[in-house]
Write a structure and sequence with these properties.
By secondary structure, the chain is an alpha/beta fold. About 45% of the residues lie in helices and about 10% in strands. The chain has a nine-stranded mixed sheet with strand order 1-4-3-5-2-6-7-8-9, sandwiched between helices. The structure holds guanosine-5'-triphosphate and magnesium ion (MG).
Amino acid sequence: MRFFKRKNKKNKDKNAKQDTPGKSIEDLPNNIENPQDGNVDNAVENIPSHVEPAAPEPLITEPEKVEEEKAELKNVEAAVEEDAQLQQKLTKTQANFGQKMKQIFAIKKKIDEDLFEDLETTLLMADVGANATMEIMENLRKSLKRRNLSDADAVLDALREQLSEMAQKVEQPLVITTDKKPFVILVVGVNGVGKTTTIAKLARRYKAEGHKVMLAAGDTFRAAAVEQLKTWGEREGIAVMAQKTGADSASVIFDAMTSAKARGMDVLIADTAGRLHTQSNLMQELAKITRVIKKNDETAPHETMLVIDGGTGQNAISQVRAFNEANKLTGLVITKLDGTPKGGVLFNLANEFGIPVRYIGVGERSSDLKTYRAKEFVEAVLSS
Ligand SMILES: Nc1nc2c(ncn2[C@@H]2O[C@H](COP(=O)(O)OP(=O)(O)OP(=O)(O)O)[C@@H](O)[C@H]2O)c(=O)[nH]1
Ligand SMILES: [Mg+2]
């Protein structure tokens, strides 16, 4: 890979350490009062919001602008769409949903209580959830009665309508506004749900759309987490700002914002450590991260994005509730939908919270991310 080079040859010697890709930047000077002294929390919290902090020294691994790479990127967006043909990616949920529906309707040609019971069971088995299932079934009965429909095909059409309506409520793609510089996306979620992978996918996508993107390695809990983000950054040719393991996450993100601003970045995506939604101290830490972000730019974060593993089941509900209480969520990403028969959880979340689903993750590669479109999703899971 030839992505990385020294930014400023004049400062080569002075900044030799921090400019070296893969090195931590813990001993760089920055404006936050003595971040090494163990009082980082207080130091950052005490920054008055009106003080414009000086840009820290370059802390970043920055991509080299190579012509051939630029040309390659032009094809990325097309590749993203092509690679992620939704229907092929959602085969497990589709087998558990669309195909089961088909079997039900192949046997039952008449509307009766048995048919409704079978439909209800199928919805529950696909993790649509008790509340959403109840609502769908109620509306289904009303709609059939109102229209005086009596054949099974009409039931399937009415069911499709109900599901589409529920799915539609949360279709609101994320718009990166260029008046916010940088547009800050804070990515949160429980351990292992796919936060870092999603960040890499988003970075690739936004870069392909022509935005200048930077990543902040706000997961400072594990050494591997910082390395994981740097590796993705290197692979995708995207700047990553990181500090050493154990550094204060809020400070890392604060510094990254300052740096992104100084460098005219359009988008800054901040990773955070995975945390159990039941651990209140870790949830409080998230709230603190947002407070610190606001000291840098009171309009930020412009998106607080919760990543949910699509195979989580009913636990997804308590995750959204807890994260939303700690930090007002503005968007969801539901990942790993390629590996689960339980993709119906999306309806459950839509019904329960109505928080926009921005993207869905359908694989491990950086191209396996789809902008969420309700119609496409419902068609994919209901196809037979
Ligand atoms: N099949 C599939 N795997 C995914 C998807 N998204 C992420 N993964 C995998 O899930 C695993 C965990 O992903 P990470 O991105 O490290 O998850 P994380 O939330 O950052 O994890 P922590 O930082 O440990 O909390 C990796 O093996 C990813 O490749 C997806 O959409 N589909
Ligand atoms: Mg991670």
